[in-house]
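Note to self: keep these together.
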Amino acid sequence: MYPVVMFVRARWFMVGSEVTLIASGFVVNRARMLKEKLTPEGIARASTSLATDALEALGTRLQRSALVDVSDPSESDAD
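Structure:
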């Protein structure tokens, strides 16, 4: 029984090693692609997009807050 357990451990070690190598290759290739896209124009485009999204979210939030009834609850119509 002991040799069988060792073979199972060795098999899982090999599978883990292969998965690690494949994942490392994927990460390295992805980093290379991102490095090629990392240009001043790309950074400016991403910054502009982020700023536009932030302003749009702020505008939406301000519109929603304007729709909320902000009347004073101490004033009542039952005078």
